[in-house]
Amino acid sequence: MRHRRAGFSLVEVLVAMVLLIVAAVWMTSYTLATTASRRIAQQRSYALVAAREVVDSIRRLGFTGATNTATPLQLQTRTVGGVPLTVRVQVVVASDNAALKAVAVTVSNNRGTELQQLLTTLYNESQ
Questions:
Q1: Tens digit of pLDDT for each residue in 59-75?
Q2: Which of 45, 61, 90, 107 lies most in the core, judged by the most C-beta atoms within 10 Å?
Q3: In total, how many domains does the chain have?
Q4: Calpha distance 98→37 (Å, rounded)
Q5: Full residue range of the structural domain in which residue 86 is found
Q6: Cα–Cα nearest to 43, from 121, 100, 114
Q7: Distance between CA 38 and CA 47 in Å, rounded?
Q8: What CATH number should be reported for the domain holding residue 81?
């Protein structure tokens, strides 16, 4: 009768190593994906703040202060929370009602990815 030695065989050690490597790769990819998602969520939040600030400033200008054009009124770079953002504002007079203007504010990150878009209308109360 043959006696077995105590310990692990080479096959058992290799299987354990493969399982550890697979677990480490999975955890690394999960961490990277979570970090990227968190960064995008943070940028979207900052973009919403920038868009709301621009909408508020246009509303303060009023109907006559907002430029009547179909081309971008403003194209500016703002930094919110340390994140550089590009803000584009477009003001268009409604074709069926000259007393209404549509204002579109689009905020993108430095890679050109659109993060937020706000739409609002201005009404000319004097007409």
A1: 888 877 776 544 455 67
A2: 107
A3: 1
A4: 43
A5: 10-123
A6: 114
A7: 14
A8: 3.30.1300
Q: Closest by alpha carbon to 100, among 92, 111, 89? A: 92
The reply to whether 2 falls in a domain is: no
**Dihedral sign, Cα of residue 81, residue 84, residue 90, residue 91:** positive
Three-class DSSP labels, the chain: CCCCCCCCCHHHHHHHHHHHHHHHHHHHHHHHHHHHHHHHHHHHHHHHHHHHHHHHHHHHHHHHHCCCCCCEEEEEEEEECCEEEEEEEEEEECCCCCCEEEEEEEEEECCCCEEEEEEEEEECCCC
- Indicate whether 21 belongs to any domain: yes
Look at residue 105 and tell me if it is in a domain.
yes
Query: For residues 104 and 90, is the Cβ–Cβ distance under 8 A?
Result: yes
pTM value? 0.69
CB atoms within 10 A of CB 108: 17
Does residue 18 belong to any structural domain of this protein?
yes
The pLDDT of residue 43: 92
Q: Phi/psi at 115 (nearest 5 deg)?
A: -100, -40
